[in-house]
Amino acid sequence: MTVVCRVMLVDDSEADLLFTRIVLERAGEDFEVIAFEEASAALDHLRGGGTHVELILLDINMPGMNGFEFLDAYQALSRAQRNGSAIVMLSSSADPADRERALGYGCVAGYVTKPLDIAAAVQLRRQVPA
After folding, report:
1. Model's pTM, two decimal places?
2. Residue 90: which domain range?
């Protein structure tokens, strides 16, 4: 029996959310996706003890609260609220400075440049803590 991997997508682009969801579904892994167009709403979900997620796919460049601000707020959450989720940055930025900055956060397990492809989606499953 396959274990479901719950994924939280955080991206301000409705088109990117849809595309990423489709790629995850086609990857052959058992991903269950919840999506947020605003980083602050995703944080509220975590703070409120909503559906547990094993993996967070986080965009960097978003209005309001960007990905780095999300990471700062995420690290301030209690251990129970973080609940061992792995975070992978999923960004259109190929800037090495963004990659280095993101990977400097202890909670970030990886960095993938958009668009997500099926091979990268399969690899995401390996980012999830056992």
Report:
1. 0.93
2. 5-127
